[in-house]
Amino acid sequence: MARAGLSAKRLVSAAAELADEVGYDNVTMSALARRFGVKDASLYSHIRNMQDLRTRLALFAGGEMIDHIAVAVAGRAGRDALTAFADAYRAYARRHPGRYAATQIRIDRSLVPDSPAMRRTAEITYGMLRAYGLDEPDLTDAVRLLRSTFHGFCMLEAAGGFGAPRDVEASWAKAVDALHRALEHWPREKEQQDG
């Protein structure tokens, strides 16, 4: 019988808080059960296993993150949208390090055939990049460039990896500006094939 008050939604929300407090890698079914003062077995009426919890947590955090980004980019285009997107991405990673880590796991898409969070992430990201006149496969390449740059910067910053005296905010602004310029002058795949 399911324990009163427990639900998959409550457990995932608690797992997100726990991830920010103790780190994503330290979120376990046992740690989550302790948070509610129950035995591990009580959770399995709501969450199948650790993989299920991690998938749900990734979708939860990804949904939160893209909602934050969507508000930031609303009504903007080009450089303004890219800057708002980048700043909102970084702000989420800094404010919620455990949840952010959850957004980086690879999700088995067969487990989530219709995820509103994943669909919304694609819509917002690709919509912002279409303002640069990009189509496939250039869109996917550009998404990978942005994600790699944003993630790399956020991870290095979180680890204290920027030891040079240069102001980190100035470096961030330069990186985003460089991305904007790269997107404006993107080497389109179709043009390369035609040339």
Automatic annotation (TrEMBL):
Protein name: TetR-like C-terminal domain-containing protein
DNA-binding region: 28-47
Lineage, opening ranks: Bacteria, Bacillati, Actinomycetota, Actinomycetes, Kitasatosporales
A Pfam match: TetR_N
UniProt domain HTH tetR-type: residue ranges: 5-65
The keyword DNA-binding is assigned to this record: yes
UniProt KW Manganese keyword: no
Keywords for this protein: DNA-binding, Transcription, Transcription regulation
Gene source species: Streptomyces lannensis
